[in-house]
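Fold this: O-acetyl-ADP-ribose deacetylase (Regulator of RNase III)
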Amino acid sequence: MRITVLHGDITQRRVDAVVNAANASLLGGGGVDGALHRAAGPELLAACRELRTTGLPHGLQTGAAVATPAFGLPARWVIHTVGPNRHAGQTNRALLVSCFSESLRLADSLGAQDVAFPAVGGGAYGWSAMHVAQAALDAVTGFRVSHPASGLELVEFVLHTAEMEAVFRDVLGPLR
């Protein structure tokens, strides 16, 4: 599995799956969540509403992941995950790692060969770039060990700021 780090717009990535740093409601929001919803079109919101009425009436739990079609995005799927909100007192690092781990597991189970991640938890939810990059490193390392026959060939970290990109490059450097 190759790991890449780049500065860019995750809504433009031509990969099998893009990961959405969603909120628990799955009904859109700001940051990456809002950008993905806008780029995917209203069908993404409709699919998320369907998830809420059929299997997730209370929303998506922190650290969990669920997939929808990607609709207007150049990807096949959107994998939604909810990071812990540090500003709201959710400081359990294991939940942050779980966002990355569960998204990797779900991407693999969907048959994805490549997946693009944002800095889950690193925006409005208040986790530092270093904490997010370390969580991503732990998740990727753990996934490689626990899923040696995975079909995932490429994991991209698509960062919105040059600062976040630099931290991810430093932390994930040994994996690349």
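The first strand starts at residue 2 and ends at 7. The helical segments are 31-40, 42-54, 93-110, 129-146, 162-172.
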